[in-house]
Amino acid sequence: MATKEPKNQPDGEKRYARASSYDVAHAAGVAQSTVSRCFKEDSNISESTRARVLKIAAELGYTPNSLARSLITQRSNMVGVICSEFTLCNNPELVNAISSALKQANISMLLMIVENESAIETTLPEALAYPLDGLISCVFMDEEQIQLFVKRRVPIVFFNRNIRSKGTDCILTDQAEGSAQMASRLHAAGHRRILCVGGPIDAPEDSVSRARLKGFIEAIDKLGGVDITCIHAGYTYENGRDQFLSYFADSALPEAIFCVNDQLALGVMDACRYTCNLSIPDAVSVAGFDNVSDAGRPVYNLTTIHQQIVPMATRAVDLILRRIAQPELPEETVTIRGILIARTSA
Amino acid sequence: MATKEPKNQPDGEKRYARASSYDVAHAAGVAQSTVSRCFKEDSNISESTRARVLKIAAELGYTPNSLARSLITQRSNMVGVICSEFTLCNNPELVNAISSALKQANISMLLMIVENESAIETTLPEALAYPLDGLISCVFMDEEQIQLFVKRRVPIVFFNRNIRSKGTDCILTDQAEGSAQMASRLHAAGHRRILCVGGPIDAPEDSVSRARLKGFIEAIDKLGGVDITCIHAGYTYENGRDQFLSYFADSALPEAIFCVNDQLALGVMDACRYTCNLSIPDAVSVAGFDNVSDAGRPVYNLTTIHQQIVPMATRAVDLILRRIAQPELPEETVTIRGILIARTSA
DNA sequence: TTGTAAGCGTTATCAT
DNA sequence: ATGATAACGCTTACAA
After folding, report:
1. Prior bond of B200 cis (ω within 30°)
2. Whole-angstrom Cα distance, residue A20 to residue A64?
């Protein structure tokens, strides 16, 4: 009890495989706190002992245990990222961008995938169990869910979800402005009968799809003289394809089709070309939003609005770090412009 | 000191936002250990106190801190997943499958993305810092790197990386057999001049691309009478496209092209159709391997070998759990068959 | 059924 | 420059 024997290693045999700072201290003949100091920059420690201790640590394969550190420092160095299966599978670059921004800041990513936009409940306990340094949510959360994190002082940044709540920030592509750019382009190209393929009919007022649709329609109305029709699908390729087909079954072909995301647009394009034998853009123009990687392939060449995912991810991480440092700062909503990528589909 | 006052809450003001079991205990007038018991199934606790404590916990927004729990239980309930940017971006379903298999087992996923197959060094410190319950690696690791984890008793499962090492398991698509299926099909279709688009020329002997290439060539040789040429690209769409173009610039068109992955195949297809004006499969057949989601779109309709990602992911998690429970079990290499998906490209 | 106390592996605050 | 020692928030004997 009064000795320096590591407590977790009563006999010669080790109970646990991972070496602890006690093991290193024991082997190096120093105090455990000395070992700890050796792994910290600018700590008062002589270069000679540091060198010796680090050498022994390497031999024993010792690295400070992040979990134990977190407990005392009150910082886990982990940020949770919640996103939907759809986002992961159709826009993996987004997750990649967030991952690399976090890596830049030396923060680990606890990734939680939810089945769909409204299934966040299933992962809430997981997100709450850890003392996360922050949460980046690419899905909607209601006020009650948000409060669970706010109460625990876990900063939330909403990624492309326009949610304003006390103590949370958000980063958004300027949906309305992006859609307006597309509206101008289609209008300038002379299109006067336009079909809009929106998200689900029951999408909430503040959803991405609604924002894009609304922005598009308002811009078109301002330009004037355009006949607009809207149909509503989900978000997927198949939704776009099927909804267009059932629309086109008993309606005239529009001159242009604006889809609120690229997946819908790709579905519509394929429906046009492979089912209806319509050539694009000769028979009809198609435009999307997001600029997913497929959109740039020659098979689609989709005219779309590019979301600047990389700067958005960087900014999202900045917002988290900022709020960790200064929790009481006023809420911020950062808006980043979309960039019109003119290809041949429209 | 002798009182039951929560130590972390000296005055009325709270230093930390997250409620601890002490806070709950204090509010409920019970011991801290009682609170702990309330959150554990089948523990000797009266239903009445449990109900009361849980109610108060909910009010305070208390959930047991996973980190602190891990420290004492020696189980972090976190599994690290390492994969390359390429895999994430070109086969996001893989990450999704792993994520959902882990979720099923109530394990959190620490996702680490590395720039490329050989950049794992950059994320090693992160993976080692946490006492992970296991590691699923979708990238290569050398023996020295593996040992770092083995030493810490962290089970590793290699996902589609054929690495045999003491104490580690792996789960693989049967590359050779899948390639052989494709070889049979192309042969049966009457193709006698076949171009293979392999991975990088310097890919290691035990790499996925080599295994597929080797399996294909051996099977073709067995069938006989086929003239085979190999070219080497990287792994990407652009690699496939560019390498095919530079090959075709001064060589005759083969009857069929087998690419060691779908991305290469998609690149080759687009090069054929959009640059060389060759129709597929009339002028040339193209086949791939993986069955990524794009392959099924009518724009490609790629004949390919489907990797059974979902069962593979489930099995990978099983292997981890198995080895956590019984670390000394013999190493296992699970092989799962690929399924030929015959579409119109070949 | 409940409370007391030890310990998980760290960092941080004191002494020395 | 280094060593004791007290947290961090839990789980788990052991006592009562």
Report:
1. no
2. 7
DSSP code at position A312: H
Domains B1-64 and B77-174+309-336 share a fold: no
Distance of CA A142 to the CA centre of its chain: 18
- C-alpha count within 13 angstroms, C-beta hemisphere, residue B273: 19
CA distance B137 to B59: 41
Q: How far is A42 from chain B (nearest CA, A)?
A: 20
The whole-number average pLDDT for the span B234-248 is: 97
Q: For residue B299, how far is the Cα from the chain centroid?
A: 27
Whole-angstrom Cα distance, residue A43 to residue A341? 52
One pLDDT digit (tens) per residue for chain A, 346 residues: 223 344 444 334 444 589 999 999 999 999 999 999 999 988 889 999 999 999 999 999 999 999 999 999 999 999 999 999 999 999 999 999 999 999 999 999 999 999 999 899 999 999 999 999 999 999 999 999 999 999 999 999 999 999 999 999 999 999 999 999 999 999 999 999 999 999 999 998 889 999 999 999 999 999 999 999 999 999 999 999 999 999 999 999 999 999 999 999 999 999 999 999 999 999 999 999 999 999 999 999 999 999 999 999 999 999 999 999 999 999 999 999 999 999 999 9
Q: Which CATH architecture has domain B175-306?
A: 3-Layer(aba) Sandwich (3.40)
Q: Residue A37: what residue type?
A: R
Distance B270 CA to D6 C1' (A): 67
Q: For residue range B108-148, list pLDDT tens digits in order.
A: 999 999 999 989 999 999 999 999 999 999 999 999 999 99
Place B217 in a pLDDT band, splitting at 50, 70 and 90. Answer: very high
- CB–CB contact A299 B66 (8 Å): no
Residue A332: C-alpha distances to residues A70, A172, B131, B252 (Å) = 28, 11, 36, 60
> Could you tell me if A59 lies within 8 Å of chain B, comparing CB atoms?
no
Counting residues of chain B whose pLDDT is more than 70, the rounded percentage is: 95
* Strand order, beta sheet including B285-287: B227-232, B193-198, B256-259, B285-287
Amino acid at A317: V
Instruction: Please report the residues numbered 247 through 286 in chain A whose beta carbons come closer than 8 angstroms to any beta carbon of chain B.
Output: 266, 270, 273-274
Q: Which positions on strand D lie below 7 Å from a protein C-beta?
A: 1-13
Output the distance from B72 CA to C8 C1' rounded to whole Å.
4
| Nearest-angstrom CA–CA distance, B270 and B61 | 55
Evaluate if pTM is beyond 0.90. Answer: yes
User: Concatenated DSSP letters for A201-252?
Assistant: TT--TTSHHHHHHHHHHHHHHHH---EEEEEE--SSHHHHHHHHHHHHTSS-
In angstroms, the CA A13 to CA A173 distance is 58
Which of A17, A63, A113 is the closest to B129 by Cβ? Answer: A63
Distance B283 CA to C9 C1' (A): 66
**Cβ neighbours of B46 (radius 10 Å):** 9
The matching CATH number, chosen from 1.10.238.10, 3.40.1260.10, 2.160.10.10, 3.40.50.2300, for A77-174+309-336 is: 3.40.50.2300
Q: Could you say which architecture CATH assigns to the domain B1-64?
A: Orthogonal Bundle (1.10)
